Amino acid sequence: MKKVDASSIKKKTIIDQIVKIVFLAITILCASVIIFIVSFILIKGITPFVHRYEIDGQFYSVNFFRFLGGTTWYQYPNLYSIGFIVINTIYVTFLSLLIAVPISVLTALFISKIAPKKIGKFLNTIIEILASIPSIIYGLFGAGVITLLVKDTASLFHYQSAGGVSTLASVLVLAMMIIPTITMLSITAIQSVKDDLIKGSLALGASQTQTNFKLVLTSAKSGIFSGIILGVGRALGEATAVSMVAGNADVGPTFNLFDTTRTLTTTMLQGFQETTGLNYDIRFSVGVVLIVIILGTNIILNIAKKKIGRGVLE
Q1: Three-state secondary structure along the chain?
Q2: pTM, whole model, 2 decimals?
Q3: pLDDT in tens, 174-185
Q4: CATH number of 83-313
Q5: pLDDT band at 27; cut points 50, 70, 90
Q6: CATH 1.10.3720.10 residue ranges in the chain?
């Protein structure tokens, strides 16, 4: 029997402790950066409500409740309101999910369980490429192609759109952007379903289609929902592409698909021409609201995900 060297054990213990300290330091550093960023945005975001800004010789501060509940982005001297922008953001995100989720899940099912392996691998590569395309490329495609299609569609219904820049164009661009994300995670979830379950279902007389829809998708619900959560996060946080097709309406909310719209992210993006003043600081206030919405949405969706996962296990 080989004798254990005490010095060797001590050396390994020291190495383990060093590794733990290094990982702890990295974790603290990452957490500190996140806390610093959130704190900076929060402090800057609160400033418009407590600081008085000089406008045309008069001093004003933004009314917090009017800011959250107003229907006009800027109306002097009432200043800024984002109530309708919040509604527009949620509306556009919801519609994009209605389009993206069914397409993503069915595409993932086809790639994972229906398509031949070579075709499945090829399509999987395409999905990965689409997921890595920068937002600006989607925005250019939306501005050059989708807006024209929306404009032509609006004319069929005898409705005049602003050159195709509209809610519908924003929804379609967002749907295109989140489809690859949801599809990739759905593929992973579907592929994790055990083959024994599938073989057992087929052995009991179920068809391949019944097995795919009633067993595979049901078993992969939790993973698919994770993809949806990431898709929601990207849809809520996307700014560049949407700003090229939204139109930035100053009043709202609007539920007409052919009207221009304004989201929280596009409002933030198009307001940083200056580096001081109310028009600059108010963008951080919009950012705080966006952070709260994203956190709230993620909490709600994660609770729903746990319930869905529990239901599958039961």
Answers
A1: CCCCCHHHHHHHHHHHHHHHHHHHHHHHHHHHHHHHHHHHHHHHHHHHHHCCEEECCEEECCCHHHHHHCCECEECCCEECCHHHHHHHHHHHHHHHHHHHHHHHHHHHHHHHHCCHHHHHHHHHHHHHHHHCCHHHHHHHHHHHHHHHHHHHHHHCCCCCECCECHHHHHHHHHHHHHHHHHHHHHHHHHCCCHHHHHHHHHCCCCHHHHHHHHHHHHCHHHHHHHHHHHHHHHHHCCHHHHCCCECCCECCCCCCCCCECCHHHHHHCCCCCCCCHHHHHHHHHHHHHHHHHHHHHHHHHHHHHHHHHHHHC
A2: 0.85
A3: 999 999 999 999
A4: 1.10.3720.10
A5: very high
A6: 83-313
